[in-house]
Amino acid sequence: MVTERKKQLTMRKVKIAGLHYDELKTHLFPGDNKEAVAVALCGRSQHEQNHTLTVMELLLIPYDKCEERTSDRVTWPTAMINALVGKAQKDNLAILKIHCHPGGGDFFSGYDDIADHDLFEHLFAWLQTDLPHASCIMLPDGRLFGRFFGPDLKPQPIQKITVAGADIQEWYYDHGMSLDEHMHRRNLQAFGKGTMERLSRMRIGVVGCSGTGSPVIEQLKRLGVGELVVVDPDYVDVHNLNRIIGTTRQDALSQVNKITVVEREVEKVGFGTHVIAFARDIVDRDVVKELSQCDVLFSCVDGVEARHVLNLISTFYLVPLLDLGVKLDADGMGSIDGIYASVHYIQPGGSSLLSRGQYTLEQLRAASIKRASPEEYHRNEYLAAVNEDTPAVISVNIIPAGYAVNELLARIHAYRFVASQDIDTIRIHFNLVKVLHERHPSPCAFFSKYLGWGDRDLLLNLLELGDDQNDD
């Protein structure tokens, strides 16, 4: 079951991980008031009318290798990018040129037009592809803008550029929908018009619509998020009624899909949030492709495999990920030994749920076998146990859900006194009445090698997501 999606206009976008953005900004603005240049190798993400370039690798052109560097131009030997172009040819990747305007001019100069035309004319002659490449300019305040080039060499403006780092930066270059300021009056008083307009333009994915997912969705819809992609293969039963907002006994008796309840409840609020819903498992090509187009992902699942796939989507497509976890140790008779919750913020190219010890590769293997072959899983006594049933109540689930949504808000609207780069994990110890935060600065060796890969024939490098047909 998949809901109908609204008609989309053509969108040209660029995404860059925070670590690459920081490296790029440092190189382009060394303090000498002269232009500098870098070139990025990019993956591609194509879905419906969207074409997104995802930065994989940076080549910083050394200052002393440039033929000319002044306050309004830079020339450099383009043969330096031959190795990147070879990689682009092999895997159908894109080339993105980025240079700076130290004087702050937010436009492409006549010299920029000539330089871009010459570069991309040679690139298209070499690569023999109809797919676009791009050129961007960074200004002293860090803002990026740019344009795509196709084989006809006619520039087309990039409509959105995103930096997925400790903070989430977005620059739009199109006309968005107007905000209903009357309906959003209280939200506007708290976060201001700029943030509310950003939320109204965001597409957010939520995987898992039950325990923590339900209160996450409840908050996002009332904050006026423009589009929600919700994923949950299950239906409502009587055991869910204590924690899924909006569910009724009749929903349980009729075994209504959880996503159907989400659609119904979002529509009732009337903020105009559009919902794309999948009553499917996340290990599904259509689901992965739809989630890859999101600006932020929320992981509200217990399963190891789903969390791993979400971390892969985050890495391949440069989408920040918020993972929620709850543990309630109880004897089933009313005695509670401990209640714990966590919220992990995952920025592409940084530490991962795997490197933070939230699951092991052995648990992942067991979960994959359990999904694909339950009989083999039950026969193999050496596989790690997965999906143990634990108590779940709304009064506990709603706390990490609130922290997770406020974590998103903090990274698009800096309201707190602790820097975002100092907070990777929030841990809530209910019994001790404590909230702690942790840093996890070391990148994950397993995931980092996939940074910005975008679409591949073997989607997410998973055999289960191979395809014999062309995508969109």
Automatic annotation (TrEMBL):
Residues 185-327 form the THIF-type NAD/FAD binding fold domain. InterPro entries: ThiF/MoeB/HesA (IPR045886), ThiF_NAD_FAD-bd (IPR000594), Ubiquitin-activating_enz (IPR035985). Gene3D superfamilies: NAD(P)-binding Rossmann-like Domain. Keywords: Nucleotidyltransferase, Transferase. SUPFAM superfamilies: Activating enzymes of the ubiquitin-like proteins (SSF69572). GO terms for biological process: cyclic threonylcarbamoyladenosine biosynthetic process. This is ThiF family adenylyltransferase. It comes from Chitinophaga tropicalis. GO terms for molecular function: nucleotidyltransferase activity; tRNA threonylcarbamoyladenosine dehydratase; ubiquitin-like modifier activating enzyme activity.
